[in-house]
Amino acid sequence: MHGPLAEPCFGTPSVTLLTEGTYPHSHGGVSVWCDQLVHGMPDVDFRVLAVTGTGDETPVWDTPAHVREVRTLPLWGPPPPGRAPRGRRLRRVLTDLEDFLLSLLDPAAEERFPAALHTLADHAARGELSPALRSEGAVRTLARLWNRPDLTTAAARPTLHDALTAVDLLEHALRPLAAPPVTDGITHAVSGGLATLPALVARHRHGVPFLLTEHGVYLRERYLSSRSEPYRWPVKAVLLGFFRLLAEEGYRRAALVTPGNRYNRRWEEHGGTPPERIRTVYNGVDPAAFPPAGPEPAEPTLSWAGRIDPIKDLATLVRAFALVRRELPAARLRIFGGTPRGAEAYRTETEKLAADLGVAEAVTFEGRVEDIRDAYAAGNVVMLSSVSEGFPFTLIEAMSCGRATVSTDVGGVREAVGECGLVVPPRDPEAMARAALRLLNEPETRARMGEGARLRVIEQFTLRQTISAFRDIYHELAESGRPGTGTDTPTLALAPAAGGAR
């Protein structure tokens, strides 16, 4: 279901969407957003460059005819084509690599990062970078560098194994630099991080305007996930240094940054985006596609929808539900959503937690549902327990269906809910349980909040508003990027995005 389209407008430029781990190979909120965008502008020539895992992923979205090309940029799988440089050429690559690594590890050298990144991109274009990073010389370069006494990594006594690990991870992360560059139109990265690499190269080499949309804060999520990664501090120092400087470079070089909420804006300004180049555009849904959900279940039921992933913090949800069951023994928790590859162990942990808390018989994992509206209708209250979000589709879809919600106070959640739902701190089962019990025990409050939530979506968060906002942005970027108008960092007019800017 894609809802009403914006009116066709001829002369819209071509747009290359840059994705990472999402559209068109994965389900989830960002993929839904991409699908809405391309279906909402049938007159635009879209291309998709998708950063993927192995390149063997099967698309789960049918792209429409005006998506001219879908190209994958696998991080793993076979390495990019190219021959290992030798002699003087290898020494040149390793010298440039050392400059790049130093920018990641030494605060005094951070200003070298942009030039060092584009130098590595030049090596990648010649097929030299990936083979060089797999060489013994690259490992020894890092091992020598981070043992310098003036760098903080030296105190951790990094090992040769650490160097092997860090260089291997960097080799995979930098593979998108080897992609043939985009030479025309607009690049539109739909997240920060590795998806911005082709956009930065296209801007640097060909002056292609670069639009960055952030749903969640990519850098924040990297920080969160690093806590559970099995690497020692020196390895994490390299990786987090890379992702931080890449985020800042994307913020600085984008012609426009369009966060999905005002919370993200603070990260983007702190990361170096001039405030005049930030424009908030909220996600939207079609209220006709998500009508009121109808009768509630007879038993007190909490429902949750999303992908099974640690960032969704189902552990807190299950702990909160166990507290709810103490007061309402008939309560149920229904969890809807698929388990992505790599998250199987997390689902098993969550199921074990439910068993350990004595509520396994009342917690059901329903898997993917044919119609997501059924997931919202399945509960008296719809829950969101994430530790990081952008402007979550599941929340505004549930609101459009007229269901009351309990959500964690992350990202743009409070902006979405307003006074039409309950918001609690993340990782706080007791607060979540109190909010859920209030709504389960007060049907009038629940009904009032559900009705208000639907009206809020209709007034502020419709798909038509979102599509119109991005159509306007594409036109502004195309105009600013034409010869003679200055493509270094185009400055856009600051007229409000239709229905979406705040």
The rounded Rg comes to 24 Å
How much strand? 5-15%
What percent of residues adopt helix (DSSP H or I)? 40-55%
Please, how many helices? 18
* Average pLDDT rating: 91
Question: How far is the N terminus from the C terminus?
Answer: 27 Å
Named CATH topology of the largest domain:
Rossmann fold
Instruction: Determine the oligomeric state from the structure.
Output: single chain
Supply the number of structural domains. 3
CATH architecture of the largest domain: 3-Layer(aba) Sandwich
Looking at this structure, what is the CATH superfamily of the largest domain?
Glycogen Phosphorylase B
Characterize the biggest β-sheet. Answer: 6 strands, parallel
- Helix-strand topology string: EHEEHHHHHEHEHHEHEHEHEHEHEHEHHH
Strand order of the largest sheet: 3-2-1-4-5-6
Count every beta strand, where a strand is a DSSP E run of 2 or more residues: 12
Would you state the CATH class of the largest domain?
Alpha Beta
Shape: globular
Write the SSE topology:
Layout: E1 15-20, H1 29-40, E2 46-52, E3 67-74, H2 87-105, H3 113-125, H4 129-133, H5 136-145, H6 160-173, E4 186-189, H7 196-206, E5 210-214, H8 218-226, H9 233-253, E6 256-259, H10 262-270, E7 301-305, H11 314-327, E8 332-336, H12 344-356, E9 363-367, H13 372-377, E10 381-384, H14 393-400, E11 404-408, H15 413-417, E12 422-424, H16 429-441, H17 443-460, H18 463-480
Parallel strand pairs: 1-2, 1-4, 2-3, 4-5, 5-6, 7-8, 7-10, 8-9, 10-11, 11-12
Helix pairs in contact: 2-3, 2-5, 2-9, 5-6, 6-9, 7-9, 8-9, 11-12, 11-16, 14-17
Biased composition (Low complexity): 485-502
Domain DUF3492: 14-276
Region (Disordered): 479-502
